[in-house]
Write a structure and sequence with these properties.
- The chain has 227 residues and is α/β, with parallel strands linked by helices.
- It is built from 9 helices and 8 strands.
- Strands 7-6-5-4-3-2-1-8 form an 8-stranded parallel sheet.
- The radius of gyration is 17 Å and the shape is globular.
- Bound molecules: pyridoxal-5'-phosphate.
- Pyridoxal-5'-phosphate binds at residues 23, 25, 46, 67, 157, 197-199, 213-217, 227.
Length: 227
Amino acid sequence: MDADAYHKIMDILRLSGVQLLAVSKTKTTDEILSLYNLGQRDFGENYVQELAGKHAVLPGDIRWHFIGHLQSNKVKIIAPFVHMIQSVDSLKLLLEIEKHAVKNQRNIYCLLQIHIAKEETKFGLNEKEFDSVLQSITSLKSSGQLSKVKISGCMGMASLTANQEEVRREFDTLKALQDKLARALPEDAVETLSMGMSSDYRIAIEAGSTMVRIGSLIFGERQDAHK
Ligand SMILES: *Cc1c(COP(=O)(O)O)cnc(C)c1O
């Protein structure tokens, strides 16, 4: 864990009022604790079992964010403790989260993951699917069927490219959908726009990000291939 890098990033974020989600996938609990001891409380994980294991042994005031692809049948494992699920990419998943949030009598904050990148491999809703999910959310809410799920905003990953204009265009697209979501749900606190990673967080901030998800800049490169 690179404390200097962390402080440098925090200085930049503080100036722009942007939150840091420290992405700790594949990192050890000791590495997470070192960052926790510098004051960091929001951590992001991509894998259900890895997250459950870390939650069990790390301090209870950590806010855990799930940012990986989530299968409906695994929601129950993280529902008792997860703070935010940033990777909601279907209505079915949202309804499953609501069910388990109710069961656990707690709120679960959710972001809609939007597919903004050129790569097909990345997950998320396209614009048409976003519109359709948004319509369903609006009607579920008006009939009181989304009580414990709190729709807080959008999340997206830009293309992995050196073309900064392309990245900026993708972030602008995401920001436009965030604004649309906020207009459609005026009574919800749609305030979190999660965009920007180690390689592109400065562009994301310029484009209106409120939360950047940073792993390798703070923890060092991951050994394995998984993203
Ligand atoms: C791994 C990951 C990150 C962090 O990536 P870095 O390049 O290490 O900063 C951010 N968001 C998501 C969804 C990820 O899977």
